Fold these 4 entries.
Entry 1:
Amino acid sequence: ALAAARAAAGAEARLADGTRIEVFANLGSVSDAERAVAAGAEGSGLLRTEFLFLDRDTPPSVGEQTAEYQAIADALQGRPLIIRLLDIGGDKPAPYLPIAAEENPALGLRGIRVGLAHPQVLEDQLRAILGVRPIGVARIMLPMIASVGELRAVRAVLDRLRGELGIGETVELGIMVETPAAAATADLLAAEADFLSIGTNDLTQYTLAMDRGNPAVASGIDGLHPAVLRLIADTCRGATAKGRWVGVCGGLASDPLAVPILVGLGVTELSATVSVVPEVKALLATLTIERARAHATAALACATAADVRRLAREFTA
Ligand code: PEP
Ligand code: MG
């Protein structure tokens, strides 16, 4: 039934040679989901769930969360919905999740670390996602993974809850690649995760050691920096060796200059900002995998982000 609903859900993005690339949209609300469907998105590769948790005194209940996730899944009409677990930290505090003042919030308690430090919050969110029907349409994605142990800890909770709830079906559990550690160990993570999705905003921040919110270093922050591209290449190599797909849900997936390079590096799912979904699909239709691979190889040999951008402009011209 899931497959039939998906097939009916509309145009599948393909390269000119028929290579399949999924084009998904990043969402933060039910209305985003409606806009995404209208724009031709094939699903959501990133639902940022922070909107449910911020600006309130108590965490949302399991029922409240399930209702929101279900409404978004319903708006997607059978298309897959990848729900990212809560990704807040010291820089985005919630009163019911006390986090001591930190000198370096970006390097502190954030992403999956918060869920592991507050097991009830993690368990409630997993329970809420397991409540979405049909089972399997909602997949789970973990932010800020740095170690296989974090993935194992969440999988153990997920398996226990599936047992308690009598859910025999598989519910996919994937991870975000946002730390150089995750990129360097992509093969190890892919052995235990159902998919990998690269968060290029944070991966760029952590690779270049440049705060993504600091205007003094903003001009140096570019996801097309050769160091970031090499980590994306490593991620694709590691995941492909274990038979797992790699997506990109960070800003590079919405950058027309980056898309051919990502595809050439082995990325097969792009989750973009809703407004650029049609442009990304149209751009993919002009590419062949052979040309994209040659272009990516050339990009990997560039010395600077500016060189990569120059090459990318020539490629699309
Ligand atoms: C990212 O880091 O690229 C990402 C998609 O997550 P966020 O922008 O929400 O940190
Ligand atoms: Mg991030």
Entry 2:
Amino acid sequence: MPENLDKIALVTGAARGIGLATARRFLSEGWRVALLDIDVETLDKAVAELAQPEATLALACDVSDPAAVAVAFAALTIRFGRLDALVNNAGTAVFKPLLETSYEEWQRVLAVNLTGPFLTTQLAAPLMADTGGGAIVNITSISGLRASTLRVAYGTSKAGLAHLTKQQAAELAGLGIRVNAVAPGPVDTAMAKAVHSPEIRADYHDAIPLNRYGLEEELAEAIFFLCSDRSSYITGQVLAVDGGFDAVGIGLT
Ligand code: NAD
């Protein structure tokens, strides 16, 4: 039986993949969910398929654009009037070595993956504080935990987001807000299909003790736990959900 009919979550990058699975997880627990994404067509389709118009709100927004984020938060506040959980999941990836990564690629990856969560948090925290607090989960990556030859922009953005998580946890605890990160290993979403070559897939298969990619639902479960009261004494942590990859420490291409 759902117990959280008054609770509101905002999930960025929620039109597909891990973000959509996370939105579904919140809905299954009786939360209402604002789904934010830059891809309006896919977002509208996803929200239509969820078929819960009373419990969902679609927000078309580029998380790296301060004005667009402000408009999205205004719409969320008008519709729901409060915020209990923010999942900074929107992300973009360029898998190239340092010397082949363009300035524009570097800037875009940093803007979406790192500046986006900075912008959303600045608007989410006061809204959460109005009702006594909440929880934020940033989606980093195992690529932010260690260096690899193809991930200079992506890995650096995710390592920065892991540090932002600790910074947010330290600064927002006084407002009753816990902040943690989930660092997925490979999950076979559209993003992974776009950037994981056969060589990368073989690397991962060998390097992951559980010998498989993760499922979107397995990530959503960890994210939901860190947003729920069941994790009430956990803040400032980065939880790898990666089939044991980080534990064994084998490098990647
Ligand atoms: P995905 O590409 O399937 O979904 C990402 C969503 O974010 C898309 O709907 C996309 O439209 C949206 N998005 C991209 N840029 C945006 C922007 N500027 N503003 C708003 N929305 C934007 O990816 P996914 O695999 O579900 O990844 C979700 C998160 O998990 C990302 O942060 C990603 O870096 C991280 N991650 C994924 C994997 C993996 O193997 N799939 C591994 C580690 C970390």
Entry 3:
Amino acid sequence: MSPAGVAVSPEVEAALASGGPVVALESTIISHGMPYPKNLQTAMEVEAIVRANGAVPATIAILNGVPHVGLSSEQLKRLAISGTQFQKTARRDIAQVVASGGNGATTVSATMFFAHKVGIPIFVTGGIGGVHRHGEKTMDISSDLTEFGKTPVTVISAGVKSILDISRTLEYLETQGVTVAAYGADEFPAFFTDTSGCKAPCRVDSPEECAKIIDANKNMHLESGILIAVPIPKQHAASGNIIESAVQQALKEADDRKITGNAITPFILDRVKVLTGGSSLEANIALVKNNALTGARIAVALSNLRR
Ligand code: PSU
Ligand code: MN
């Protein structure tokens, strides 16, 4: 176990020791984001894409109270089958899940925390949390955003879902001092679509350009995170109107049923999935795979830059 209390798989340990490219992956997307067996299939395919592009995947989860970085195929299967029996674990939940010997699926905030702890600078996911709609009243702002402010990990995502308030999310990231770049685009993407109506603070066009920014962030000791937002590939983009009407209905249902706290995001994501007849799930899987490809290339470029 290295560092204290964290179990790093031998493969990830070896890659880190030699300065090789490693890509961290979160587990809430597997436990709470997709149904079994699609979640297991997707998790395995994502790991395969990372490997095929020259990097080592490191899926992160808490098993029987021990944070694991890099899961065996048996462990990945257990996580996928258990689904929501694993506790959704953000930064605030880590100590409690560890202390109780529980099983935790890490969100973006907790995954960034553990990735940084073991020295993994790159992390791929689907979408990050953000400022919820009406967040200015409810103060429901994902701890993902404050984690970006204090943890120097680069997250590759397809932007932010329109279940959230995207422009306030970007404002909050600015306040936290987070570098936000759209990959190959001028506009910040909205997960299912490549348009959000918000211009990205900056644009990057290659893995090498990303690697230079990540390296500069480290050399300047900024100690804050970086968000690289990759637009969903055009052929997989869902119709913005269909998604938006499903989001509106899901938000109303959450309100009617008085769903609060950390149950809101999984509830809305699940309702949007059902209301769009599963087409959002297919788009979701396609964009995660595309992010894995981009993230692996960035990890390889960063590793080459530092050699
Ligand atoms: N957004 C998505 N898919 C997800 C999540 C968010 O499009 O799976 C998950 C991620 O694990 C993220 C978490 O870190 O939800 C944010 O939850 P909350 O809004 O409760 O902070
Ligand atoms: Mn919340």
Entry 4:
Amino acid sequence: MTMRIDVISAVPDSLTSPLNTSILKRAQDRKKVEIYVHNLRDYAYDKHKQIDDKPFGGGPGMLLKPEPFFECIEKLLDQRKYDHIIFPTPGGRFYDQKLANKFSLANNIMIIAGHYKGIDDRVRQKFATDEISIGNYVLTGGEIAALVIIDSVVRLIPGVLNDSESALNDSLMDGDIIEAPYYTRPAVYRGMEVPEVLRSGNEKKLRRGKKSSRKF
Ligand code: SAM
């Protein structure tokens, strides 16, 4: 089964390059995931193709209007069922590896990216199943958060990473365990030595040397 991810964005171009580079590109080439980016403006049916408006109650900044989101989301929902409709927002649940693991089991995921001051809250109320924050700071738009979610989820789909890059022993896949630092040749560089335990080739010792706990 190929996972499908739909992203709705007011600035779709900002997603093009990252979604078509490196492992995300490979995942799509290998048919492990299909990623569709929908331009919110294509669903603005008034003659000015307006997607934003001033917020009720005043205040600076513009809000993304509800109608283009409703049109686009309802069209997608008519075509298939979504396991998760994710709204990235600074007020959401903190994103972590456990959530990435959960999302990686989905067949269909939709991500609604906010922009400017955000989106009309009726979109969130009506459709969002998962409100996700990627950290305690404010981004200019949900696109970067969408990329964080997509990248962390897609690399977990079996067959996306090669065996040698397996995600299973990555940091945070086993509770709070963080991988210890890696080294490659040369064994000594500018007087800095690779730890003996990693050079010994003793597999048991080596694995123990690979575990450490969070530094901060
Ligand atoms: N006015 C909003 C507020 O104060 O909460 C911030 C809007 S922000 C400039 C525009 C969009 O970026 C948001 O609608 C959301 O989709 C996204 N965003 C910003 N910070 C985020 C974060 N920490 N995690 C996830 N998404 C975020």
